[in-house]
Design a protein that fits this description.
The protein has 361 residues and is of the alpha+beta class. The protein is built from 9 helices and 25 strands. The chain folds into 3 domains: 107 residues, 3-Layer(aba) Sandwich (Glutaredoxin); 99 residues, 3-Layer(aba) Sandwich (Glutaredoxin), CATH 3.40.30; 103 residues, 3-Layer(aba) Sandwich (Glutaredoxin), CATH 3.40.30. It has a 5-stranded mixed sheet with strand order 3-2-5-8-7, with helices on both faces. Strand 17 and strand 18 form a beta hairpin. The longest helix has 10 residues. The relative contact order is 0.13.
Length: 361
């Protein structure tokens, strides 16, 4: 069974949340497709695209998205440079403020519903205007707006700490244009001042400029996990493994024990659990296997009253991940010794076996 199907099954159970980037991220970094067009029939439509900004958002993604929908007939696509005579005429007619822009024209425009917030589009007689992209060229200021800058504060001496640089790629995969990526050493004056000012107790930490707000399709999923700090936000949850500043300890390195039964040949591949846990940002430091037929396996079954296998047991370091505990509680249990046992194998929609555990709790 593919891990995508496992994630889909978990999502159907309501236990997955979209956080971000390696911290507690189910990066479910979605395939970029900000517009969802639906029609009650094959209405005919014409598309006018205004472009001419090489640094800006690729509006062709929107055009292709519309073509792929297949539920209304696109008769013609006209591409215009915003600075051309025809482009200027369209800008004036539709009162366009930003480039790139897309105009969808149809005599049956009421049959076409755009599945995005109403404040992100403009509607008129027989047309819909979409110009809320990023980056964009502001026709009033004549400046490109919406380039996002990142700042990383880290301890270069921490060899076990996470490398957060992949955040840039993950953001870019959701359509975010990254400009400057600045690395600041924690022990520098600047690093110390920023950490103290924001009362941060973990490293590394990532700051993201407030231009991220312009990427509404991404920001709506991020804002609950960000804290404002001047012209930036910072991610208020650490990227594991991380250094706890107050103690100097490395946190978030979780050990995963797989409990298997070699006699169950058609049981699902339990190593898929690593991807499930990784999907919500849990860093798996090490893995080991125990079989129900050996002493270690029997002891675990008895100690935690495990009645369904194969499954996984997470070490007590899982408690370093405070923000995912409520998610995990929906599919397993935290034991008195802070060990976590994954129990609800049925949500994975996979083959497993139930067992009777003699002498369980």
């Amino acid at each position: 069974m593919k891990i995508e199907n496992i994630k889909k099954s978990l999502q159907n159970e309501g236990i997955l949340i979209l956080i971000i980037v390696g911290l507690l991220v189910i990066l479910v970094f979605f395939k970029f497709n900000p517009l969802s067009f639906k029609s009650n029939g094959l209405a005919s439509a014409e598309i006018i695209v205004l472009n001419g900004c090489g640094e800006c958002f690729d509006i062709n993604k929107i055009t292709q998205s519309l073509k792929d929908q297949g539920n209304f007939d696109i008769e013609e696509v006209t591409n215009l440079n915003y600075d051309s005579k025809e482009g200027k005429s369209v800008i004036e007619k539709y009162k366009i403020q930003k480039i790139p822009a897309l105009i969808l024209k149809s005599r049956k425009i009421e049959e076409i519903n755009i599945g995005i917030p109403e404040n992100m589009i403009s509607k008129g007689k027989n047309y819909i205007l979409f110009e809320e992209t990023a980056p964009y060229f502001d026709l009033n200021s004549k400046e490109v707006e919406g380039v996002v800058n990142l700042k990383e504060i880290s301890d270069s001496s921490c060899k076990d700490c996470a490398n957060p640089s992949n955040i840039q790629k993950q953001l870019e995969s959701s359509g975010v244009k990254i400009g400057d990526y600045k690395k600041i050493d924690y022990f520098s004056t600047e690093g110390q001042e920023i950490i103290k000012k924001n009362n941060i107790n973990f490293l590394p930490v990532i700051f993201i400029s407030k231009n991220i707000e312009k990427y509404w399709w991404t920001f709506s999923n991020l804002k609950d996990f960000l804290t404002a700090s001047g012209e930036y936000y910072f991610f208020k949850e650490p990227i594991a493994p991380y250094k706890e500043i107050s103690t100097g300890k490395i946190k978030g390195k979780v050990n995963l024990t797989y409990i298997t039964d070699k006699s169950c040949e058609d049981c699902f591949n339990v190593t898929q659990l690593k991807d499930v846990f990784g999907g919500i940002g849990i860093y798996i430091s090490s893995e080991r296997y125990v079989d129900v037929s050996n002493a270690d396996g029997k002891n675990l079954l008895k100690a935690y009253n495990i009645t369904a296998i194969p499954t996984g047991v997470l070490s007590s370091e899982i408690n370093d991940y405070t923000s995912v505990k409520e998610i995990l509680k929906q599919v397993g249990t935290f034991e008195k010794d802070n060990i976590y046992v994954f129990r609800k194998l049925d949500v994975l929609k996979v083959k497993y076996q139930k067992i009777e555990n003699e002498g369980g709790k």
